[in-house]
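User: Can you help me understand a structure? I only have the sequence.
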Amino acid sequence: MNDENIDLYGPLKKFFGFNQFKGLQKDVITSIMQGNNTFAIMPTGGGKSLCYQLPALMEEGTAIVISPLIALMKNQVDAIRGISENPGIAHVLNSSLNKTEINNVMSDIEAGITKLLYVAPESLTKEEYVDFLQNQKISFVAIDEAHCISEWGHDFRPEYRNLRHIIKKIDNVPVIGLTATATEKVQEDILKTLGITDAKTFKASFNRPNLFYEVRPKTKNVEKDIIRFVKQRTGKSGIIYCLSRKKVEEIAQVLQVNGIKAVPYHAGLDAKTRAKHQDMFLMEDCDVVVATIAFGMGIDKPDVRYVIHHDIPKSLESYYQETGRAGRDDGEGYCLAFYAYKDIEKLEKFMASKPVAEQEIGHALLQEVVGYAETSMSRRKYILHYFGEEFDEINGEGAEMDDNTKNPKKKHEAKEDVIMLLTVVRDTKEKYKSKEIVNTLIGKENAMLNSHKTHLQPFFGCGKAKGKDAAYWMALLRQVLVSNLIRKEIEQYGVVKLTATGAEFISKPTSFMMTEDHVYSQEDTSDIIVDSKSEGIAADENLVKMLKDLRKKVAVKHEVPPFAVFQDPSLDDMALKYPITIDELSKVHGVGEGKAKKFGKEFVALISKYVEENDVIRPDDFVVKSTGVNSGLKLYIIQNTDRKLPLIDIARSKGLEMSELIKEMEAIVYSGTKLNIDYSLDDLLDEDQQEEIHEYFMEAESDKIQDALDEFDGDYDEEELRLMRIKFLSQVAN
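Assistant: Let's start by predicting it. Here is the structure, written out as tokens:
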């Protein structure tokens, strides 16, 4: 169909009910219908699927759509079937079908009913499917999520690299590749691998002006932060991405016990559960999906209001793609990422087993993510620059929509430093990546620099003389890069070259205002009200002192050592949460109901008075309830010690080491529940020995086991002392 004047508006209205095309859709569709190989790069939410659905419905024959995810196919097939009388108009051909279903699909294709056939790349490696398709009328082949083809892409699938040969085998038809994210390197790789270097390429703007970008430091209290964020948006849909399945389950549970309708989604769940959870999200039976990256490709839910990254992703492509699932209806979309450098280190460790070439690519991609997280310039400008697009951060659409632009950091004149940096790039013959340039500036030798004799050059260490460290020079380098004074080479990925503008800057420098970078230390807790067991969080010191004095009095009254009343971490937690009822006190770390009832009255009275006198604003979301994962185990231990079952049998039946069982028992008695393990101790220690240890704990300043081991100097081992401490606390503290 090569006619220039194809009517696309009639079919657009007939099939999809739209009067207008979005962005580049019309140009892309025209290109396909003229029989051209075509490549479309459109941001998530830009309407990619319509680019192949409409021509498939208009042309004779069946269009093959190769797509990486079964969930995505199901979603789209349902949508297409919704616009036709005949369900055979769209089919899936993948591993989820049985023999009868496969025959049904084949007969619909033969009868010319099927316009769109969705297949996974793996299915196309099956001879019988290829043989069958060779004899059918195929209109064109569409490859969705085409970045999966490129080893530079963020979701590499080997089957994709063989597609060109399979497509040629089936029929010599036009090919269209579509992706929501691709740097120049990835684009080049896709076209080469598909054998469509002659393709007409269409690239939409990557700017999503309705999305707000924010990066927060990831502290130990990230769950609390997430819960607060989600609760402020009750009834709105959101996605939370985590890197591991385990973390997905944990976060989903913690949200559920805090009254949020959330479901987990990851590849470890069976297909039925995944489909059910996806449908719950689409049908709004739940508000939040907590997911690994397996979720979301092609999920066509227009009103996702926020996307949270609990873990920073492996590349900016992934990040862009995942955040792009927010606000597809052009309404509000909030993209919040939590960042700690130790997550990057973890990802680098995962890469250690990969081939060296792949590791290099992985490290380079990760460094771009670090740059994005730590930068204090406009995040939108940073992302768009990464995708080869310029953005005017003053007048551009969406210019105000990120945390850095909203709360700008200090700037200072850095003209002289920029000249120094550019000169080092030039004088090291433009052969180094960012890290080596920074090492040259700060005078840090390594094998690479020494092999080029850079360490002997007069400029080696010139940046150190200015008292600036590696982090400063790296931050400046990123800003100089985004200002196009330097660029990163595509072929030798990451090697830094001067641009013509950069060369000119050296000879005719102008002002360069540098923004100071964020420093995300691990301890940065911002203004988060924290949960329990967090060390190093500032509790209210005055209140802690008062609570310690009260603890001493209560201990004397009950004739027990202070630690048997409440341990230090519990007092710290009280000085963070300000519990003013027994119920609230029982939720404080290490307290529990038993302890709260036994000792709590005077403590909540003191805190209540303190709160009133000092106008303390108490946390409204008083406590993140724990998921109670271990509550079943606790119950099991209590019941079976009551039955006098040998401790070693209790441990074995739960797959625990003895030391792990003792730890669980300690948690039980520290939170105020009695455990009777006399029967077990009587086998270990005689009456006098037990008496001796009991007296030690009565007099001791602290309940630390190391102190007890030192005191008894080898008379008792650690296990005996820990079990005696459990008995002691059960008797005197609970």
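Now, to help you interpret it: Residues 110 and 352 are 49 Å apart (CA to CA). The chain has five domains: 9-203, 211-406, 415-511, 541-613, 631-732. Let me know which part you'd like to focus on.
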